[in-house]
Specification:
Layout: H1 4-30, H2 41-48, E1 55-59, H3 65-74, E2 77-82, H4 85-98, E3 105-109, E4 122-125, H5 129-144, E5 148-152, E6 163-166, E7 172-177
Length: 180
């Protein structure tokens, strides 16, 4: 016969397992992950030319690889936002091992359509076309105030000042810059 403590531990483990399964399903169905290819991370970081005084934001940061690349180069304040709690957990674990003392790298599970971007200088997105269309008004306002937006593969339809750069993998990086 099971005592209360053993029964409590078993129920807790079952609930934990169910939470993990549910989180994986939510991640797969609501926030599918498309990663920026590793072979173009350095190239994109070079193009963005983030400086120490800049604040960098990655909307849909996934596992945080570009955030880490930018931080290694500029040692600036970097934020990664993603809908998936699993991606945020992975990013924070990697951050804890690679940059254990840095308080300048922050990953949060946030809705990328509502996150505060007002303090950012440079924003990177690898989101689908529908998401870019939804973000258009916010990104236009951000660029008008002097910010810079970099979007891998998907443009912001109808946004002024679009510049395209073909990357080494044949895909395009769309660039939008405001006043200096």
């Amino acid at each position: 016969m099971l005592n209360g403590i053993t029964l409590g531990i078993i129920i807790t483990l079952i609930l934990l397992f169910l939470c993990i399964i549910l989180s994986i399903l939510v991640n797969a169905l609501l926030a599918p992950t498309s990663k920026t290819p590793t072979k173009v991370l350095d190239e994109i970081a070079d193009i963005m030319d983030v400086k120490k005084k800049d604040v960098f934001v990655d909307l849909g940061s996934g596992d945080g690889r570009l955030v880490f690349k930018v931080y290694e180069r500029a040692l600036c304040k970097c934020f990664g936002y993603d809908l998936s709690p699993i991606n945020i957990i992975i990013s924070n674990v990697v951050r804890a091992f690679r940059f254990p003392l840095s308080k300048d790298i922050v990953f949060e599970a946030q809705n990328v359509f509502k996150v505060d971007i007002s303090k950012a200088k440079k924003i990177y997105c690898y989101l689908d076309q529908k998401s870019m269309d939804i973000l258009k008004c916010r990104l236009e306002e951000f660029v008008k105030k002097g910010g810079e937006v970099y979007s891998y593969m998907y443009n912001v339809k109808g946004m002024k000042g679009e510049k395209k750069m073909k990357l080494s993998n044949g895909k395009e990086l769309y660039i939008y810059k405001g006043k200096e």
